[in-house]
Each structure stands twice: as C-alpha cells, then as structure tokens.
Amino acid sequence: MPAGSSKKRERQYEHIKEQAQERGTSEKRAKEIAARTVNKERARTGEAETASKTSTRDPKSASQRGGQRSHIGPGAPTKDQLYEEAKKKNVEGRSTMNKQELRKALGR
User: Fold this and answer.
1) pLDDT at 11
2) Same domain, 13 and 60
3) 84 and 59 in one domain?
4) Structural domain tally of the chain?
5) 97 with 81, same domain?
6) How confident is the model at residue 78 (pLDDT cuts 50, 70, 90)?
7) Burial class (CB in 10 A: 0-12, 13-18, 19+), 34
8) Does residue 34 share a domain with residue 10?
9) DSSP for the chain, written as a single string
10) Taking burial as the number of CB atoms within 10 A of a residue's CB, which of 18, 54, 67, 80 is the most buried?
C-alpha cells in the first residue's frame, strides 16, 4: 500500500488480497491485483496525486466490473489451477505453456 493510505483503503487491500488467494492465486499475484485495484479506486475518488485517463473516465469501478474484462469471467480457473489439472492428466509440455495453451490442452 502507498504511504499515507487511509484505513479504509488498507482494509480494502487486505480483503482483495485474501479473496484472490482463496481463489488459488499466488501471494505475489494477489498483492499485485489488490494494489492495482485499490490504486485505481484511489485515483477515481481523487485520493491519488496522479491518475491515468482510464482510471478516471471508466464508468464502472473495478469492484463493479467483477472480471468483465478478463475475457473469461470472474469464475475462470487460474493458470496455477490449470497447471495442476494438466499435471494430474499428465499433459506433456505443461511447464512451458501459458494459460491459454493450458486451457486448450485441457479442452476448455
């Protein structure tokens, strides 16, 4: 969290991070998701010193969108989850595959 963030934003960050980890996201990625979401919310409300055009002009906040721009939806499995499934099914070459390739190899 950026220095000087409000208690509300700190709670929001922790909540988003915990939710991402519960979905199977790695801790590093969960922190990144939480930080980006909170920083975007700070920009939208004028709490941040600088803000990108997309942060301030987007009609829906990240929490309202709920994964709409992920091109898969909010309930889609993570790369780690797909990798574990591929491992169980003994898919060859899984260690070098990206998420899309794993999905294709698993027939999703």
Assistant:
1) 93
2) yes
3) no
4) 2
5) yes
6) confident
7) buried
8) yes
9) --TT--HHHHHHHHHHHHHHHHTT--HHHHHHHHHHHHHHHHHHHT-SS---HHHHH-SS-HHHHTTGGGSS-TTPPPHHHHHHHHHHTT-TTGGG--HHHHHHHTT-
10) 80
The domain in which residue 88 lies consists of 77-108
Residue type, 83: Y
Token couple for 5: 């963030």
Cα–Cα separations (whole angstroms), residue 74 to 1, 2, 64, 87: 24, 27, 12, 23
Query: For the segment 18-60, what is each residue's pLDDT rounded down to a tens digit?
Result: 999 999 989 999 999 998 888 888 887 878 777 776 666 766 7
